[in-house]
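Weekly structure sync, notes
Attendees: PL (lead), two postdocs, one rotation student
Agenda item 3: pending single-chain targets
PL asked that the sequence for the first pending target be pasted directly into the notes so everyone works from the same version. It is reproduced below exactly as submitted, 318 residues in total.
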Amino acid sequence: MRVGFIGLGNVGGKLSGSLIRNGVAVSVFDLNSALVDKAVEKGATKAADAAAIMRDSDVVITCLPSPAASDAVMTEMLPEVTQGKTWLEMSTTDEAEIRRLGALVIEKGGAAVDCPVSGGCHRADTGNISIFAGCDRDTFDRVLPLLTIMGRRVLHTGALGSASILKVITNYLATANLVSCAEALTVAKGAGMDLATAYEAIRISSGTSFVHETESQVILNGSRDISFTMDLVAKDIGLFQSVADRAGVPLDLNPLLISIFQDGIDRYGPRELSPNIIRRLEDATALDIRAPGFPAEMVDDEPEERGAEVTVRRGTAN
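Predicted structure, written out during the meeting:
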């Protein structure tokens, strides 16, 4: 199976790295030539452009920063889509847009899968991240061997577009948790608590979470480096709001999160690291929310392991 990979940023570079490291023949393309050179050093083949990637590959994976970027790349690739080719969209994108672009691929005889990832860049780096996959079952079975190289847990979510809905739902929850962790740590500091003790109290309690056990650590270190930026958070919670609006579900919390992150972008810039949303509270209180002994970045200490499909638990009728 010839695999092409377009988009070698924080996530895409790590996902493609897992394929290369495990012996998959991968051709790569990115507008940033330095990222392409880095992948080639690992064993990838450099492609001339996105159209060449589609023309010369059986499976093409895209991992791009926005729906607009995915549209631009697919516009370039579409003339090269033929019977039997498969497009895997691993970007966090709009479910309506993935269905539109996927339909264009399917019309030309190809197959389309939306398969965003979740679990942090440190797990993408080791092939231990989780992957959602939206497509028909036959297509899922065909691409599962590739997905289990890039991810530890792979969930078939249903039809094309379903994975993108679940991805923005999970990113919304992570964003809400990040803001709540920032508030909790700032209140702990303001109340005179030792921050290392506060971190442990939350970690061993009902208040813990994946976000606390990762992002709270880099907040307390002061690096705030989780390889994710405020503009990407704003994109994701904006996509979640669009899903809610189309579903006719009135929301209270997400509009507030949108406002908080827009304020963070206005203050610190769109490319500011997302955990630095806590700076709004540090600035307002003159408190320094840092403590010694926490890592500057997260490292996955689980050994790399071939992934597997996650089985959905379903109850039985009485």
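Discussion points:
- The two ends are 46 Å apart (CA to CA).
- The longest helix spans residues 162-190.
Action: rotation student to compare against the earlier draft before next sync.
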